[in-house]
Amino acid sequence: MSHPFTAPTAQVRVDHHSAVHLAAETAREVARGCELPGALPDQAAVIASELATNLNKHASDGTLYVQPLPLGHGVEILAADRGPGMQDPERCLADGYTTTGTLGVGLGAVSRMATHFTLRSAEGPEPGTWVCARLAPPGERRPEWQGVGSVCLPAEGEEECGDARAIVDTDSGRTAVVLDGLGHGRLAAEAAQAALRTFHAEPDRPLPEVLARMNQALRHTRGAAVGLLRLHPDRADYCGIGNIRALALSPGGVSHRLTGQPGVVGWGMPTPRVHGFPLPRGATAVLHSDGVDARWALDPPPFVLRLPPPLLSAALAHGHRRVRDDATVLAARSPLRLP
């Protein structure tokens, strides 16, 4: 059976109250696709409805992103907007607090219903609020799975996404991949999915071997750009072909910026090389396709550097996406322990 995370992220733009119902139905459908038991799909719908209602009432340019969990079994609902931000986020989570005369139970109810809940907000020249609510069965709540986030979006007007991504934990480390099939649409998606199947077959092999196997698998496709990242407790290894960027973020700034070697996986790929860089505890490694404007990393606001991986992925995809191209962000921290 294919991994449910292979599908692109479902997105619902909240620009009218009617989007609240669509958000709820989208979350319920994704949760059912993840085969969540019992009342969990309905709970996912309630969470999405509350977050969408909050965006409709208080935010500008708000969007909900819904997808299976990057690691584990469950559903993730992300909310992102462009302001005005929350002056006191903790107070906004308290039942009874409201600025619009309602009952004031939305965010508080979401935080109690979700298995994991994270909220950050920023005011000032680049305002915004980002929320991550995850819902998982009791046996799928390992804390090391929280240090991962991703958003994968098709180009506007396209039904299929030419990007793909995945992340797995094995004895070799935490290994992530971002793939960008050449162009967009169906043929790009076929190339990306072929590479993704190869990755899932043996993700713990040395990174150059994984790329070599992808190169073989993609010979009769359009080909793809591929970025592979392996995270260890204190460092990361990057191996890439094409325009997939890798970066390391910490509260002090962006410490490393890497781009794959020139070439196309599936078409005369050069011999891949591995580049290692330190990744101290608490630092975040980021992979993203060229559907995300790379200029975000030139001088990111301090609050962006401090966002946890799920919210960082949402913030970059929401704020720096090129809508005419497929866009993928994957952010991850090194796990403290592996299986």
Structural features, described:
This protein is an alpha+beta fold. The chain folds into two domains: 4-141, Histidine kinase-like ATPase, C-terminal domain (Heat Shock Protein 90), CATH 3.30.565; 147-332, Phosphatase 2c, domain 1, CATH 3.60.40.10. It has helices at residues 18-33, 40-58, 89-92, 106-113, 186-201, 207-217, 302-305, 309-320; strands at 10-14, 62-68, 75-80, 116-122, 128-135, 148-153, 163-170, 173-181, 224-231, 235-241, 245-250, 253-259, 275-278, 284-288, 327-332. The chain has a five-stranded antiparallel β-sheet, sandwiched between helices. The radius of gyration is 19 Å and the shape is globular. The two termini are 22 Å apart. Mean pLDDT is 91; it is low at 96-104. It comes from Streptomyces demainii. This is Anti-sigma regulatory factor (Ser/Thr protein kinase).
Order of strands in the sheet with most strands: 1-2-3-5-4
Alpha-beta content class: alpha+beta
* Main sheet makeup: 5 strands, antiparallel
- Element-level helix/strand string: EHHEEHHEEEEEHHEEEEEEHHE
Q: Quote the average pLDDT.
A: 91
